[in-house]
# Entry
Amino acid sequence: MTRILIVEDDDNIALGLQYDLKLEGYSVEVAADGDKACRRAREAPFDLIVLDIMLPRKDGFAVCRELRRAGMKTPILILTAKTAEAEKVLGLELGADDYVTKPFSPLELRARIKALLRRGAPEPLDVYVFDEFEVDFDRCEVRRSGEHVDLTPTEFKLLATLIRRKGRLFTREQLLDAVWGVGNYPTDRVVDNHMMNLRRKIERKPSAPRHLISARGLGYRFED
# Structure
């Protein structure tokens, strides 16, 4: 599910955006100040950030600057009540991808969000290659030096989920939703057990993995 972070300190606007975007099928989280926005953007993978400019603690320009300096490439759509051309230009120069001026039409906002998501979406993969492995997404199989690697369907889904968002950290809860499905509630330990099995089949040294990387207390990511 596409994840959107809304950074907005006006409760009415934030709740309205959250409700509207959830109806569109997005998973939505709200941060009410700039400090929390920077923290959450670093902690969890989002597909898009909708960022207000006038925020407590740290304004939207500072948030945008900090995230871009940290190397984050998540699309950012800024919301501003300012009509001065210089304010819009500043936001774009700091790394924002687009802007909408308040008051805005929900229809226009949804259209701009969809356009940014299409622009930032990863290219669809048919076969992904790393080391001596080939991951064939069409056939749902993995080959090592041309030989079939026996993965369970769940192991393949887990590997494919991580590869398609290479470099992005997934929490265990996010992997449960992506692989087992929203509404299924196996324990976090299930993710760890499947990851251990997957490492035995993929990693040259499972105790010191190069590709299936864990971040202590947070989750997992894939690196090639």
